TrEMBL record:
Residues annotated as signal peptide: 1-19
Keywords, sorted A to Z: Signal
Protein name: Uncharacterized protein
Length: 359
């Protein structure tokens, strides 16, 4: 275990129970974390500065703000899961808590972003066209990435029944997942192909120079996804992409079709944790637009979320730890607990804003 500095100790030991967030369901929370689980050595002054970057948004929650690149809608949640708007005094107090020793009141920030000029288009798509919900994901005991069937099903019914979205069936969500895993395997990402059977075969069949043609920074093969798009969903207008930080990262090679299926990549759980941990840092959904340039084919951009609208919820202490002290940032288990908490806020916050846009 890391030795803790008395002057820089940060223990994320908050008990988030009975989530009473406005618009969220009551239920399980972010269970308390012992010092053994959270050996954080962190400079409180840095975190205070990071909090300061949110000051303008803290003062104006629950309204659309215009930035240089688009429109933002913010909401903030305190340690108990209650929606909050912070005054300057409260923000100062939050900083002082960090400086003293214990962060007893971490804040979560929820953001909905729409790129400049896209708001009317997003409104029209959500009102008039069909969408596809991609799976939400979770980790197995071996730290592989698999679909979270329960959470995906809850999201599907919430968005279709409560928020009025015209989503294609969950059977199509499964089709997308199967094709997505195949697209990752076929891509053989440069930085993460070790241990993927098809990538080993590719390097055996082709010279290194030719093999490099197939390697890009994109961890999935968008051509396979576009083929499925045109075969199965010729009238699809958008995709609600779950867990974007993970599925557009090199760590996606740790994904597999289902818990009972064979792993795409052979690796130890510890190795997978190192690959996955940097991307298990927030809850985020993207509204990916399906382009139709020539009226005959539907196309996704090579990086699906490069210019997408998105909704995300992140725990500010976790964000600050990752930014300033990644070496002593929370373990994968702590991240799973934090993400379960932000997922619950995101399900309702994102849905409410989408409902507002689709009216």
């Amino acid at each position: 275990m890391l030795k803790l500095s008395q002057s820089c100790l940060l223990l994320l030991s908050v008990l988030l129970v009975g989530c009473g967030t406005q618009g969220t369901r009551s239920g399980g929370g972010f269970t308390s974390i012992s010092p053994e689980e959270a050996p954080f050595d962190y400079k409180g002054d840095d975190y205070a500065k990071h909090l300061g970057a949110y000051e303008a948004q803290f003062k104006r929650p629950n309204q659309w703000l215009t930035g240089s690149d688009g429109q933002y809608y913010f909401a903030f949640f305190d340690a108990s899961g209650q929606s909050t708007g912070l005054t300057t005094n409260q923000l100062t107090q939050a900083s002082q808590v960090v400086k003293s020793s214990l962060l007893a009141r971490p804040y979560a920030v929820a953001t909905f972003f729409i790129p400049s000029g896209d708001q009317q288009l997003i409104r029209r798509l959500l009102k008039q066209q069909k969408g596809l919900l991609t799976p939400a994901y979770k980790l197995t005991a071996e730290r592989e990435i698999i679909p979270d069937i329960d959470r995906t099903t809850r999201l599907f019914h919430e968005y279709r029944n409560n928020y009025g979205l015209r989503l294609v069936s969950l059977k199509n969500t499964l089709k997308y997942h199967v094709r997505f895993v195949a697209s990752v395997e076929s891509q053989c990402p440069t930085r993460a192909s070790e241990g993927i059977t098809s990538c080993v075969m590719q390097s055996w069949m082709l010279s290194n120079s030719l093999s490099n043609i197939f390697n890009t920074d994109n961890p999935y093969n968008v051509a396979l996804l576009n083929r499925l798009l045109n075969q199965e969903w010729p009238k699809l207008g958008y995709i609600l992409l779950n867990d974007q930080p993970l599925v557009e990262s090199p760590a996606v090679v740790n994904m597999k079709f289902a818990n009972s299926s064979r792993s795409m990549k052979q690796a130890t759980p510890a190795k997978r944790v190192q690959e996955i941990k940097p991307y298990l840092n927030r809850s985020r959904w993207d509204i990916v637009l399906v382009k139709n340039a020539d009226q005959t084919r539907r196309e996704l951009a090579d990086k699906m979320t490069e210019a997408s609208a998105y909704c995300e919820v992140k725990l500010l202490p976790l964000e600050a730890l990752d930014q300033y002290n990644l070496a002593t940032a929370p373990s994968i288990g702590v991240r799973e607990k934090a993400k379960a908490y932000t997922d619950r806020i995101a399900q309702q916050f994102c849905g409410k804003v989408i409902q507002q846009l689709a009216r």
